[in-house]
Amino acid sequence: MTNTTPGRFITVEGTEGVGKTSNIDFIRRQLEAQGIEVMCSREPGGTPLAEQIRELLLAKRDEAVDETAELLLMFAARAQHLNQKIKPALAQGAWVLCDRFTDATYAYQGGGRDLSVDTIAKLEDLVQGSLRPDATFILDIDVETGLKRASARSEADRFESEQLEFFEKVRSVYLARAKAEPQRYHIIDAGQELAAVQAQIAEVLEGWTYKPRQ
């Protein structure tokens, strides 16, 4: 039997308007240039069922969304995504590149919504077991600048419609998590021109040891 080396799991995080889409595509191209198979996905979402949950979460509605219901929906989508897409890809040796993951839950639901970090951690253990990203890029930007960028891009969804204070709390959680675990997190200054942002990302990637699939 062929022993397939498990792939690596990379996540990209940040508040609104940081340029995740452009930079995820850049990371994908950099990895593929090294002969690495890359599977891109996003959260919430990534599978048909998880994408339906995403629509529920992002849609503006007259009914107030209970914060605990929001949290549980996030992890319901994550459980489906992990077991149907992420884990199988990693087991086959592909590298998974994901637009947001559980760090976003700590930041948005834990920071923005002031929900219990202990509750989030328990759900994280329940849904993920020991699985955690191998590396996380945090695209960091001044909140006001990011919101201006996001508003120019498209109509605001339910999360993007939150107040400035909400996103300041989200950003502070991201930065605190990066400070607490610097070996996993890479903070990228996303307030610069795109070429400068991607130069920072490339510098991080160049420090890694690539092992192309055979």
Comma- or semicolon-separated keywords:
214 residues, globular
Account of the 3D structure:
By secondary structure, the protein is an alpha/beta fold. 53% of the residues lie in helices and 12% in strands. The protein has eight helices and five strands. It has helices at 20-32, 48-58, 67-91, 102-112, 117-128, 143-153, 164-180, 194-206; strands at residues 9-13, 38-42, 95-99, 135-140, 185-189. It has a five-stranded parallel sheet with strand order 2-3-1-4-5, sandwiched between helices. The chain is globular, with a radius of gyration of 17 Å. The model has no long low-confidence stretch (mean pLDDT 92).
The number of helical elements comes to 8
State the order of secondary-structure elements, H for helix, E for strand: EHEHHEHHEHHEH
Main β sheet profile: 5 strands, parallel
Poorly predicted runs are: none
Shape estimate: globular
Spatial gap, N to C terminus: 14 Å
Strand order of the largest sheet: 2-3-1-4-5
Rg to the nearest angstrom?
Answer: 17 Å
Overall average residue pLDDT: 92
**Secondary-structure content class:** alpha/beta
Beta-strand share of residues: 5-15%
Query: Total strand count, please?
Result: 5
Helix content: 40-55%
Condensed summary:
This protein has 214 residues and is an alpha/beta fold.
Write the topology of this structure.
Blueprint: E1 9-13, H1 20-32, E2 38-42, H2 48-58, H3 67-91, E3 95-99, H4 102-112, H5 117-128, E4 135-140, H6 143-153, H7 164-180, E5 185-189, H8 194-206
Parallel strand pairs: 1-3, 1-4, 2-3, 4-5
